[in-house]
Amino acid sequence: MQLITKLISSLEKVFPDTAGNNPISRATAFRNEPFSFQIAYKSADDPLEPIFIRIKTDIDVKYITEYSVGYVPVVRADYWNSDSYFERKTPGLYPDMLLKRRINPQMMLSEKSWKKHFESGEKQQLSAISDSYQALWFTVNENGEDINPGTYNITVSFFSSVSGERLADESLALDIIPAKLPQQSIYYTSWFHNDCLADTYGIEVFSDEYFEIMRSFVTEAAKTGMNMILLPAFTPALDTPVGGERMTVQLVSVTRSGDEYEFDFSLMKRFISICRECGIYNFEHSHFFTQWGAKHAPKIMATVDGEYKRIFGWDTDATSGDYAVFLDKYISAFKDFMKEMNIENNIFFHISDEPNEEYAEFYKNAQSLVGDKIKDFKSGDALSHYEYYENGSVKIPIVLVDSPDIEKFVANADNYWVYYTGGQLTRSCSNRIIPTPSARNRVLGLQMYVGGAKGFLHWGYNYYYDILSQGLFDPAKNPCGYNKLAGTSYVVYPGLDRTAIPSLRMKVLYEGFCDYRALQLLETKVGREGVLAFIENTVGNVDYHYSPTNTELFAFRQKLNEEITKNL
Asked: Is the pLDDT assigned to residue 112 strictly greater than 80?
């Protein structure tokens, strides 16, 4: 048997019919930086050949994580009025799931007459086929530990499981630079949907069973740079049809007696403690008013005279006196809870998601009800229009990347974030849906550094419903389950074993945040103007429409590492 193999960067996408265009043999990374690469493989002759691999390296193998790249069936890859910054625009099998494998497991020999070696205890047994390329994904130092500098040679050898014959070798020389990236300063949140998780696994939300599953999903998020999580004090008023309801996922227990309220934060305390244990320490309080206009109160449940029922919702006008009283008493109680949990500096408040011009007055009224009460804390909302920032309605604007006003925010806002929903597929704006190039995903880090953005928000970490929370889909089988936009509403897959399956897209986005950190490191050596000059001289003008190829962005990062090394 002959095996075709190719070692490529993490930015290449391996499809059944192609294995990327630019093999690599050497790369650099910092002491505390995860570095990923891939190996594409395919049988050159035999229709099917079971194989296994062995990794030989100078670095302790505990620092290497191995995945098999899983394909998902994308039925729609081209979108109305979209630009050309796509990997491809045809339906087919697309790489996205990262199925974890063990490193160098014990080999066993079956007792069958056909004799076959297999990797003991490995769920993802390998076979090479002549019909399609497949890929393995390797991440060195996935947890960002401090490893010793030096050159580490990593060789991956492929063997026939039938004959034991060595079929191919691929090697990478990884130079670990004697410096560390600064701690991530970008705030990054991708909204965590607790009802989706409970629905997917058919369990009671916030039960002991639920929290064990949640741990896996939050841990995977933290591994890839997510350092803020949506805190559902009350059921988030997001993606809900007017007059409809989503599953109650309220962390605060409310008891009402007349005009008096009592608040129990025990469940919220457990939620926060678990997130901290998983590596996330910043929390976004759920929105105080409904999405797209701030016209109503969110769904809020309470026990009233022994009966558990909804006390506020779509039938509550945002200017309701009863709701104003509730907010006053709730926010006062929540401030005491923040002190108890020591999260005063780690909380971010929202008023209403995506207010538009039509509802400016409603948003202003809503802001007036809570603005003074939360003025000492971080707060902001996703929006497109500069007027909300200009008139003081929003403290920290979270700006749509394709907003026509984005340059105004860049020029005038000292503290702004950016976001996209997934539908921003024009003018080469950054995006992480499955059919787009990995460079379109990762470039956000470079763009945010040049533009001075301090954070990134996305609405879907694990949203497995269709539009307005209708239906339920398995993204491994139906990645286009949300409005036929492949991968727009999630970056993590629900595993059959109730653990989170990461996507290559979430790892690539984290590489963008590491690019941002590397630029910050260079800034400590040459100043911000020096960094901007380096960027201009290396790749030209960078704005929120800069659109490098996968190869160009990988080469830029390697040149950046060289520049930092020269200034150590």
From this structure: no
